[in-house]
């Protein structure tokens, strides 16, 4: 235990009974996230109110002790790993949906509400909240906001930054504040709402969010297109995104991933040079013409097979390859390096070709798939032994350099956390980083909020 | 002339010939904006490059001289009036469209490009940039970004904050920097892009913007609905926004405004208790069902007449009332007080009723119209003499208090500038304002960028 006794006293009063944990078992349970990085916190607290969170930050600030906000730890970048110890604030007990207001197309939630639970609650009202990370059933809205976590639907409906109206939060100064609006439009001062979204808990702890809801289209159609090679598929993505009908999902899966998925998932998974999974949504009257438009764009040089699911069962069958992918990867390598680079869509063919070449050059197994409609590729390096692991790191640096040269950036939706912060100077100018550090100091002068993350 | 001689020397070298103006005629021409406020700058400069803008801010910072960015001065809040003198930076000569990239759905522009010119250039590519202030033919993109200026289409397509991917800018520190991405998605550090949008030139001067483009729907249908009274119309707005088909414009015009427009514009303008102008866009196959859905929602208690334009000529006729409104107001009062409050859509009926009562109580002529789909009302007070002018100011304070009590905020799209900054503590907590001041200091430690604006 490294916490000063005085702070521990204060915290015990603020978080009585099981609202605080200092035993080794609990500390271990909150030491890691999905990055597989690990560092022990000195204590874990479970606030249930905004006021408690305010008091916590004030107490920790007085003692210069780190405060690390945590949703459900599903992020892959180490953003919630307490590298300098301190107090982990788990928002899992602040999990109430405070208000669903369909007339104003908004919902007010506490940060610990699970993404999937919110979607379920919204269904009855005919609305949804667009961000849909693949961890949706077990990741929290607070975490989604902290990391600007997106998902397949972003291509049509945007990320948390486009789907949040306002926040309540506690800055590193210990000040509680509200920002943003309950209205769908606003020009009253600086946009602190978007500034907090994606700041990975380094500026403030979010204690409440006003989310913008979208009416749920009543119909959805799934298409699966296979291509001769990755370049042909990538060119089809660029064609699809250059025409007016925007699909609500446009997922890319490369040949290596397909093979893996087939080995694991069986014959239902097609063998091809690459595959696109496409979803188009709309109203029953409009859907056929939308599907036509997207199908036309999907066709072209290198297309091997294009199927449109007509039933729920067929839809499920088409998605089987994508679903088999995550467990299949785990069978190959427990040390997966999971990246989510992003480039302008038209540069996707160069990116997938370049990654193939780098995989060959460094003799590393790379599986690429992801949200191609946004140019956002999950590039997973799967080292099978220590030597390949070392080669992977060299390869990764070259992948980032390639991405930057293609006008892309380091992360589309996973964020920076621990694992990518050293690469930030590749993506951002020194002056931009300097201003980001100034912004950090404006919210958190002592640097107690999630130290060691995001900024190099 | 109040500029230090040394600074004037430096500026003369940086801005040779007609790139700088210090004569009284030019200073007068850049002393005002559409707020009718007025203050003389000491000099006006016309940069043509980012580098020149950087050098300018560095020079002014060294002498602690104010720097006021300016697009075309169409804003109504005094945001570009140089209240403390200093150097006005007019971006009118940085007016090149640098890149139109339909494959990536983006355009890169200099800040002086006119909104209307950009829309024209995008037409050939089948795209548009959603923000469409009514000053669109003569306002600049830089000004749109600085003020988060929106317009009718925002109800469906969002404001500049939802339609900008990245910026290049010069902070008050004199540092040039890039923020944001060329990609449609990104989670690489703090969102400085949105922070600058709507900051009214108080954090940085924007020298380049990467704008997100939207495919232009190929068809548009205009509807006009008249109602017995403002409450009935406001309730119809709430109904329209609670169903899934979002119109691309949903404009409200109250009885006083209609009468004014008819006096000025003739019999084509209907007499009614209130009117909605509705536009629905889409593809030819989808439009009829969308128009049906919106029409159903527009019907209800208090509807008097619902017309759907079938031809371009009919569309024009339906819009005549809205078009006659601005010139009509000018015939009444040269001292129009032009507000743009915003409330959650479901509170619109209470807002329009409340405004009616306040107009009566203070004996002030008030005309209300605006972007009702966002709950954004332009509340125009039209004092006809000095006594009414004084009563108007008392009335205005009560309007703001009403808006806040209805969970609304001070500005939907005009911003704060000079004229609303004293009301900011009504809308924002002291802690939020304190953090905004910290953010200001992070970008502009000497407070040279547009002093006296936005923050009280």
Automatic annotation (TrEMBL), chains A, B:
This is FAD-binding protein. InterPro entries: FAD-bd_oxidored_4_C, FAD-bd_PCMH, FAD-bd_PCMH-like_sf, FAD-bd_PCMH_sub2, FAD-linked_Oxase-like_C, FAD-linked_OxidoTrans_Type4, Oxid_FAD_bind_N, Vanillyl_alc_oxidase_C-sub2. GO terms for molecular function: FAD binding; oxidoreductase activity. Its cofactor is FAD. PANTHER family: GLYCOLATE OXIDASE SUBUNIT GLCD. Gene3D superfamilies: 3.30.465.10, 3.30.70.2740, Vanillyl-alcohol Oxidase, Chain A, domain 4. It comes from Dyella telluris. Belongs to the FAD-binding oxidoreductase/transferase type 4 family.
């Amino acid at each position: 235990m490294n916490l000063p006794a005085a702070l521990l006293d204060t915290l015990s009063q603020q978080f009585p009974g099981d609202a605080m944990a200092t035993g080794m078992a609990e500390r271990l349970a909150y030491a890691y996230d999905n990055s597989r990085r690990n560092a022990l916190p000195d204590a874990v607290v479970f606030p249930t109110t905004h006021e408690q969170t305010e008091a916590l930050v004030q107490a920790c600030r007085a003692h210069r002790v780190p405060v690390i906000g945590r949703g459900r730890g599903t992020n892959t970048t180490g953003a919630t790993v307490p590298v300098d110890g301190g107090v982990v604030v788990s928002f899992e007990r602040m999990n109430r949906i405070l208000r669903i207001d369909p007339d104003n197309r908004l919902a007010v939630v506490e940060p610990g509400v699970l993404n999937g639970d919110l979607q379920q609650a919204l269904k009855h009202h005919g609305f949804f909240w667009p961000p849909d990370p693949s961890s949706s059933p077990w990741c929290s809205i607070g975490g989604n906001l902290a990391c600007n976590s997106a998902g397949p639907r972003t291509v049509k409906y945007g990320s948390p930054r486009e789907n949040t109206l306002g926040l309540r939060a506690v800055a590193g100064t210990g000040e509680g504040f509200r920002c943003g609006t309950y209205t769908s439009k606003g020009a009253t001062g600086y946009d602190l709402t978007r500034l907090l979204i994606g700041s990975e808990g380094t500026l403030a702890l979010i204690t409440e969010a006003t989310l913008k809801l979208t009416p749920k289209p009543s119909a959805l159609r799934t298409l699966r297109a296979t291509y001769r090679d990755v370049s042909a598929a990538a060119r089809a993505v660029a064609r699809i995104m250059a025409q007016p009908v925007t699909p609500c999902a446009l997922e890319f899966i490369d040949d290596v991933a397909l093979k893996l998925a087939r080995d694991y998932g069986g014959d239902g998974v097609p063998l091809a040079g690459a595959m696109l999974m496409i979803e188009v949504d709309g109203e029953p009257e409009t859907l056929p013409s939308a599907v036509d438009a997207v199908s036309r764009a999907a066709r072209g040089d290198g297309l091997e097979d294009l199927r449109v699911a007509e039933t729920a069962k067929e839809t499920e069958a088409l998605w089987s390859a994508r679903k088999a992918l995550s467990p299949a990867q785990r069978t190959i390598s427990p040390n997966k390096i999971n990246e989510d680079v992003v480039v302008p869509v038209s540069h996707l063919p160069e990116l997938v070709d370049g990654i193939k070449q780098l995989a060959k050059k460094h003799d590393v197994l790379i599986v690429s798939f992801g949200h191609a409609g946004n140019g956002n590729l999950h590039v997973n390096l799967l080292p099978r032994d220590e030597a390949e692991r070392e080669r992977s790191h060299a390869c990764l640096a070259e992948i980032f350099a390639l991405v930057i040269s293609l006008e892309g950036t380091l992360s589309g939706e996973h964020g920076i956390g621990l694992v990518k912060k050293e690469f930030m100077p590749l993506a951002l100018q020194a002056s931009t980083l300097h201003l980001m550090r100034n912004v950090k100091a404006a919210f958190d002068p002592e640097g107690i909020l999630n130290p060691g993350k995001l900024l190099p």
